[in-house]
Structure formats: C-alpha cells, structure tokens
Specification:
- With 272 residues, this protein is an alpha+beta fold.
- It contains 9 helices and 9 strands.
- The protein has a domain of 170 residues: Transferase(Phosphotransferase), domain 1 (Orthogonal Bundle), CATH 1.10.510.
- It has a 4-stranded antiparallel sheet, with helices on one face. A 3-stranded antiparallel sheet has the order 5-7-8, with helices on one face.
- Strand 7 and strand 8 form a beta hairpin.
- The protein is globular and about 50 Å long.
- The chain starts with 7 loop residues before the first strand and ends with a helix.
- 37% of the residues are buried.
- The protein binds adenosine-5'-diphosphate (ADP) and magnesium ion (MG).
- The site of magnesium ion has 5 residues, from loops.
C-alpha cells in the first residue's frame, strides 16, 4: 500500500541507511525496528541489521545496515528472480515462531480499515468521475457491498509476519538472492492479504508486469486462502483505483499517464 502522506526520509550511506520518521509517526518507527530485530534473530540475512533506534526520541530515527542489490521495481524479472522473490517472502512469512508472532500487533491497513477508507473516499471522488473509471468503480463498490470484508473477527489463518508494503522497490536482488526492506507497515497478517498487496501494487504492473500466476504458483495455498486471495485482490485493486485517481488529480506523475484507465480494466477483470 502507498501511504497517503510520506512520513519519513531515507538517507542511503555507503555502509548504512538512516530512516528518519516524523514526530507523529512513532508507530511506523516502532514497526520498522520490531521487524528488523525479529528478523535479525529468526531470519538472519533476509533484512538489514538493526543498528540503532531511539523510539522515545522526538523524531524517531532507525539506523540499519545497507544491503546489496537493486530494487525489483521498474525492470523486467526473469523466472529465477520471481522464484527468489517468492522464496524471500516465504522465509519472511514463516520466520517468526507462532508464540512470538501472536504478540506482534496486526499490520495496519488490513481489509476492514481499507473498506472504511473506501467509504470515506467514495462521496468526494465518485461524483467527479465519468467513463471507464466510473464504471469500474461502480462495479467494485457493488461487489464490496456484498463481500463482507469488514466483519470484525480474528485474522484468518495461517497467520504470517507480513512486510505490509507490496512495492517491488522494497525487494532487492543481488544477482543471486532477494532481500527485503521497508517495514514501517509490517505486522501480523494473513498470507493471502500479503500476496494480494504485491500482485495489486502499481509497481507490479505499471512498467514491467509481474508474472502473477508464476509468482503465486510458488506458494502452496489452501483452498480457503485462494478464496480470500481473490477477494483481497479485488479490494486492493479498488483501493489502487482511488490512489491512482488521487495521484492523477494532484498532478503527481510517478505513474504512467494511462495508469487509471489500465487500473479500471484490471479491476473489471478481477471482478470477472
Ligand atoms: N537497508 C537498506 N539497504 C539498501 N537499500 C535500502 C535500505 N533501506 C532502504 N533502501 C532503499 O531505499 C528505498 C526507500 O526506502 P524505504 O524503507 O523503502 O522507504 P519508503 O517507505 O520511503 O519506501 C528502498 O526502496 C531501497 O531501494
Ligand atoms: Mg519502500
């Protein structure tokens, strides 16, 4: 997920990375630090080493080692790279032992929060809209009304440790293996939700499309997980339709000019 506001700055130095969080974003720093310290113990080498953090500081700072490798966004990926990406995710998801994981707070922006966000966005966004984006949004909202994704209850299993941000820029390929950065939205999650985060992220289709069926084929999903994955992909595709519309209306040119149009088509396809 793309945060609505950027709440930190990242400084890349030759041997270390310094991530400075704004004063209001204490929880982001806490999640980043929790992830790095947990992974240093339970999956050494998968993420940066945690070097320093003072979560009580006015504006928290996390200092970590600098990892080798190039971000997997914005470039074509071979089958071997997709396999290495899936292997890194499998290791991340299963690293934290169940007794430890149950004390990790749920990640932010799970399904219920996203449904609430869509309900807040719709009244100010939908009336301005026409064409294929409006049709896709209406189809998405009609599906959402019958999907019951915001029913409160425990997270569906099997629960995993989730990175929280599906941007392929957070996965670094060093020619042999994939390592993971950016844990400010990490936490306990549903594996199906974490996979949908990646397949629906704009970074996975806007430039060089991720081979989604090859990627998902690396995970032995249960029938129930496959069902939830389908629903979460629809939900996240609808969220991304809004996010890309907001980018477009703010003149933000991070994404291709036809991103909204293409996302409308992607959402329609996912809705069947
Ligand atoms: N420890 C690290 N080692 C190497 N590169 C890093 C590291 N941390 C971050 N980066 C690079 O900086 C980029 C931005 O950092 P990230 O933590 O993802 O911040 P943001 O939340 O702004 O996306 C990453 O996509 C990655 O390319
Ligand atoms: Mg990032």
């Amino acid at each position: 997920m793309t945060p609505e506001h950027c709440t930190h700055a990242v400084e890349l130095l030759p041997d270390r990375v310094i991530k400075r969080f704004r004063g209001t974003d204490r929880t982001g720093a806490e999640r980043e630090w929790r992830a790095l310290t947990l992974l240093a113990v339970h999956a050494p080498g998968l993420a940066a080493e945690p070097w320093e953090c003072d979560p009580a500081a006015g504006a928290p700072v996390v200092v970590m080692s600098r990892l080798a490798g190039v971000p997997m966004r914005g470039r074509a990926r071979s089958d071997a790279q997709v396999g290495a990406l899936a292997a890194a995710l499998h290791r991340l998801h299963t690293a934290v032992p169940p007794g430890v994981l149950e004390r990790v707070p749920p990640r932010p922006d799970l399904a219920g929060e996203l449904v609430a966000r869509i309900r807040r966005w719709t009244p100010r966004t939908r009336p301005e809209l026409g064409g294929t984006a409006a049709q896709a949004m209406d189809a998405g909202l009609a599906w959402l009304a019958s999907a019951h994704l915001d029913v409160p209850g425990p997270l569906a299993g099997p629960q995993v440790f989730g990175a929280g941000d599906g941007n392929l820029a957070n996965f670094l390929w060093d020619g042999r293996t994939v390592r993971i950065v950016d844990f400010e939205d990490s936490g306990r999650s549903d594996r199906a939700f974490e996979l949908a985060e990646i397949t629906e992220h704009v970074a996975s289709w806007a430039e060089h499309p991720l081979d989604v069926s090859s990627f998902l084929g690396h995970f032995a999903l249960t029938r129930a997980e496959r069902g939830r994955l389908r629903e979460y992909r629809r939900l996240l595709a609808l969220v991304w339709l809004f996010l890309l519309l907001f980018d477009e209306s703010s003149g933000n040119r991070r994404n291709p000019l036809d991103a909204v149009e293409r996302q409308a088509g992607r959402l329609r396809d996912l809705l069947g």
